[in-house]
Amino acid sequence: MGLSSRFRKKTKPRLPDGVRVYAIGDVHGRADLLQSLLTVIDADLARSAPERAIQVFLGDYVDRGPDSRAVLDLLIARSKSHETVCLKGNHEVFLLEVLKDPARLQEWRHYGGLLTLVSYGITPTMNPSAEQQVELIEGLRRALPPEHLAFLQQLPSSFTCGDFFFVHAGVKPGVALERQKDEDLLWIREEFLASEERFGKYIVHGHTPVSVPDIRPNRINIDTGAYATGNLTLLTIQGDSLLAV
């Protein structure tokens, strides 16, 4: 299913005893891959039964891939039966912004948003006029189940457990974790990726696609470009052990 690798360093970040975290990178409409990993998690839970298992999803559930609607259905159902943390990604934020301002539809299409429309049964034209943009977004508002809208509106920007800080894109170097701004948590790239700073916690993130999980002394990137590569990464953390598959 992809790379398996273990994290090693002198002072290892740890989770509290008895806690296991399963973290999944950017799904982007690949409900098929998400379902496969949920099956893997269920099998692991049945086999080993940790005291507490937390499933963390790193955002960007919609756009680019073929079935954003089904991804949200899976995550909402999962949250009802398991302890889950679904983080906010920049694509979820953009979807909410388009619902408020249909004029941003043309910009959204560059983020793969038209595929999200299609997943809700809406067929956009190639170059919709301003009037058609309003009609398309009105159609999306009608097609979007209230449960989906509530889910999107309530997503947190980060999650901390033990020595780990989970976030969609990364953090701004030189700024304490508790003072980070959403703009950086959801969008940052090079300034964070190039930093060797120890941020106070070990950062688990996605947002910037890599061919295999990128393990660094201060962070791990588990966005393996699922919508394009067919490889959705699952990171399992227990104690001070990290395993990415």
UniProtKB/TrEMBL annotation:
- Species of origin: Bradyrhizobium frederickii
Q: Domain of life here?
A: Bacteria
The UniProt entry, under Pfam families, shows: Metallophos
**Gene Ontology terms: biological process:** RNA decapping
InterPro entries in UniProt: Ap4A_hydrolase, Calcineurin-like_PHP, Metallo-depent_PP-like
Any one annotated GO CC term:
cytoplasm
Q: Which GO terms describe its molecular function?
A: bis(5'-nucleosyl)-tetraphosphatase (symmetrical) activity; phosphatase activity
Give the Calcineurin-like phosphoesterase domain ranges: 20-211
Write down what this protein is called: Serine/threonine protein phosphatase
